[in-house]
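Below is one record:
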Amino acid sequence: MNLALRKNWKRRFLAIPIVLTGIGGVLMAFACAATGATPSGDAIERMKISPNYREDRFVNTLPVTEPPMFKAIKEWIKGGDHTVPQNPVSVVKRDKEDFETLPQSGLRITWIGHSTTLVEIDGVRLLLDPIWSERSSPYSRTGPKRFHGPPLALDDLPHIDAVLISHDHYDHLDKWTVIQLAGKGYRFAVPLGVGARLRGWDIPDTQIQELDWWDEIKVKAVTVTATPARHFSGRSLVMADRDETLWAGFAVVGPEHRVYYTGDTGMFPGFREIGNRLGPFDVVMAETGAYNQLWADMHLGPEQAVQAVKDAQGKLMIPVHWGTFDLALHAWTEPAERVIVAAAEQAVPLAIPRPGESVEPSKPLPLLRWWPSIPWQTAEQHPVVSSGLSQSVQQ
């Protein structure tokens, strides 16, 4: 085994517990304080009222097919080609002065990396799924490591009116980052049950609001709605807490603008309902990376992400959930390459910012390939299609 292959094998083997937690596998491992507490007491009683809660677990409106565990482990250890960058990723460095004033256009989206996004809309600043840690993991020395540093220091963030967290997986709910933000007194909006994670890290109840699907909160001039998604939850590496907390996307509706973040999700008919009830949207931040046909019910993949944006009546797509962590088997640039092809075929306007780059729909970015040219698989070579869909949902 050559040195490069040996290093790749070791990196991927050590990451198995973390990655399989993210795709629904079950692997015995020790949990740690980063897992956070699970819901109990009054939180359980509120969850029982939810129409999405059955037999002590949350459920999807369209069931998911679990990936075969041992096949997933085998494929993960084997790894894929070009899954991590060989050279530094192009990043737009930002500082506090860049965000001293709100955008004159009323809407500015800044992609920090992975799903972490700063949304400035109609005088309100929202932070989505923040992770500033070096790894997406409960451990400091193993698990998926960042391809690039955060383009904006956490202390350089402008004042945040609310932090929105879509679910409790490690690449979306990062203990260290959340504790730092909570120390600034920020308000957190999370799906049902996820509040227990935060309370387990000594974050006060007064800073936490838990939402079921279609629940709304007001943040100054905008309304934030937790929207359905097709995914799952859990932080314990033995998956003992599987689906004990809810997962969601978020729609943000202001006086002048509307944006939608899908959260992690497979394809499902709910995108059309979200668009009909809360759209059309000026921008949709759509989960696009970390896909594989083995777990196609849990992540969209580029082609279905484009269809989801279209179904939700999005006027502009920004792909997220790619380009920061090695969480699948595809080339790290493949989500961008495939989404360009799919968006052109579906006539969906597209912006692909570099980490740290801002997008204002009133001043659209030119579509530039800022990533390197490396081999990648097309949709025909590796189709990613969620199960249980009618033909009308697939088109």
About this structure: Residues 334-346 form the longest helix (13 residues). Residues 1-7, 24-31 have pLDDT under 50 and may be disordered.
